[in-house]
Design goal:
ten-stranded antiparallel β-sheet; Anthranilate synthase; 471 residues; alpha+beta; single chain
């Protein structure tokens, strides 16, 4: 059939690291990881490298202007479809990230927090091939978009079948378009932390920030603000080993790894979907409400029951559900927005979460980028009302959030999209690895409880890397 992708069945692998480990240092290497075999809620893994084009926002470019360029990139690659036996959500297209600060390109926000990390607000590649796994059907494929050059297909097919010895860094002709994501031929150095993680603000500064949020709420500025603190440590070596360690410690269904070049990378162990768009149907799954896991089955069940019964957590969750109903409603068919799931319990190795679902149908004539433009960043990590909460975040958090509370995502040539919210995520950049933790603050929030909750959310990740490095 015209414009049909070439699909090669592969031996099924639950753990995508089997395919991605030899690729992870290549230009534009990206993995969207459902956390199998430990995590069970995600269905698909996607991975690729060597994009045919790279997109980053230009200075002064609006978010909608950037999205227009992404649309053009997808159009240049060309529409395609997958054969009926392959149900993967990706037939070629865009993979990458939107940082939280991309929201500044969609809304007018003050410029107060320090941009000390200098991470581009977005980075997406246009990919003409992928390896994908469908865990529901226990099938894996190597997929080529029709535009993928024959020599590239032959190289990848031979390599992935293990029949050649050519080093992956050999410069084939089709590498040229990937040069902006240059990497090194030097062997990877082992990852290690050089010191323990430490917060960038004191407990007293945290307490004062929560008091200021309470002042804003009493003044009528907002109902809820998500306040975040940052932890950091120095490192050297290849962050992929750190990702594999984190994945083992806390597997989650919306994980991912993005090679940023050299020894820089995004390492995300997110449990939270932002927005999925498939066959014109929209779903977002906000998390709001957290308890730590118990030390034994009885205490663990007691904490889960306490969360489910908590009037405070249910009220916070409902507040964000209402916000997201409004956000996705901007790109939805009138009357189609509904809430099929409210206050469900989801449990992970470190915490219990309260999760809801909002669904809708995409309005005629609109696409994934219209949906993102009206919804990004996710309301579960800002507060309500959204824009005022973001202004307060800018005033209280000393540094920009960078990748934290942004999104890892794909948008394929058919318009399919799925995206995470990059909580429980780390940025390894220029010799320092950073991790963030926060929570929704309302008027009856106790600052010490909120502080402990933030540590519960990321403690397992920080301890895993410190133990791995003997710190």
């Amino acid at each position: 059939m015209p414009n049909e992708c070439l699909v090669h069945p592969l031996p099924y692998r639950e753990d995508p690291a089997f395919w991605f480990r030899p690729l992870h240092r290549q230009p534009g290497a990206v993995l969207l990881d459902s956390g199998r075999p430990v995590a069970t809620r995600g269905r698909f893994d996607l991975l690729s490298a060597w994009p045919v084009a790279r997109f980053q926002p230009e200075p002064g470019e609006t978010g909608r202007g950037f999205f227009a360029r992404l649309r053009e990139g997808l159009q240049r690659l060309g529409n395609a479809h997958l054969p009926a036996e392959c149900e993967l959500p990706f037939a070629g297209g865009l993979l990458g990230y939107l940082a939280y600060d991309f929201g500044r390109r969609l809304e007018a926000l003050p410029q107060q927090a320090e941009d000390d990390l200098r991470l581009p607000d977005a980075q997406l590649g246009l990919y003409d091939w992928c390896v994908g796994s469908d865990h529901a059907r226990r099938l894996s494929w190597l997929v080529f978009h029709p535009a993928c050059p024959a020599e590239k297909r032959a190289f990848l097919l031979e390599w992935i079948q293990g029949t050649i010895e050519t080093p992956l860094m050999q410069r084939e002709p089709w590498f040229a378009s990937s040069e902006p994501w240059s990497t090194t031929d030097e062997p990877a150095k082992p990852f290690e932390l050089l010191n323990r993680f430490r917060p960038t603000i004191s407990r007293e500064t945290y307490r004062q920030a929560i008091a200021k949020v309470h002042d804003y709420i009493r003044a009528g500025d907002c109902y809820q603000v998500n306040f975040t603190q940052r932890f950091q440590a120095d490192y050297r070596g290849d962050p992929w080993a750190a990702y594999e360690t984190l994945r083992h410690a806390c597997a989650t269904p919306f994980s991912g790894y993005v090679n940023l070049g050299g020894e820089d990378a995004v390492l995300s162990l997110s449990p939270e979907r932002f927005i999925q768009l498939r066959a014109g149907l929209i779903e977002t799954r906000p998390i709001k409400g957290t308890r730590p896991r118990g030390s034994d089955p009885a205490s663990d069940q007691a904490l889960a029951t306490e969360l489910l019964a908590s009037a405070k957590d249910r009220a916070e969750n409902l507040m964000i559900v209402d916000l997201l109903r409004n956000d996705i409603g901007r790109a939805s068919r009138i009357g189609s927005v509904h809430v099929p799931e409210l206050f469900s319990l989801e449990s992970y190795p470190n915490v219990h979460h309260l999760v809801s679902s909002v669904r809708a149908e995409l309005a005629s004539g609109l696409d994934a980028f219209d949906l993102l433009a009206g919804s990004f960043p996710g309301g579960s990590i800002t507060g309500a009302p959204k824009i005022r909460a973001m202004e307060i975040i800018e005033a209280l958090e000393p540094h920009r959030r960078s990748i934290y509370c942004g999104s890892l995502l794909y948008v394929d040539v058919r318009g399919e999209m799925d995206s995470s919210i990059t909580i429980r995520s780390m940025l390894a950049r220029q010799g320092r690895i950073r991790c963030w933790a926060g929570g929704g603050i309302v008027l009856d929030s106790d600052w010490e409880s909120e502080y402990r909750e933030s540590l519960d959310k990321v403690g397992v990740l920080l301890r895993a890397l410190e133990t791995f490095s003997g710190r």
